[in-house]
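name: query_chain
kind: protein
chains: 1
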Amino acid sequence: MDEILEVLEKDARMSAEEIAKCVKQDAKDVKKKIKKYEKDGVIIGYKTIINKEMVRSEHNKIRALIEVNVLPQKNLGFDHIAERIFKFAEVTSCYLVSGTYDLLLVVEGKDMQTISNFIAEKLSPMENVRGTITHFLLKKYKENGVILKTQEVNKRIAISY
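structure:
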């Protein structure tokens, strides 16, 4: 991967001038490359990683990983069913994976019931869905390569013998 992309992936807030220093290139060339990457769809967006446990509010969402077994459609494969699934608003990510299931979904909802309803009313009844297994995310330690630090104070009582 291009050095410029590697730098941006670690910190998208860096200016073209800062990136140029890191990769030992001219700042104008770096700006041109970044613009081209954006135009060509190589860079599709910039996103802030937020440790949501540090900003608790009534709007925080519950996340779940859902393993989905599907029956690929003849002449369409997995892509067609994946596209139908990832268009649901609840689905934030959708991956085709190898192993014991076919698709891995990251789903968000306001509470566990919302996610359960999504599975029962939208996902499971789909014609080519053969089964699902749901894992609710309880705590995040690391996301997108960034270790998330929490303000949580250890409230355990020390035990000594």
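note: The chain has two domains: 3-40, 53-141.
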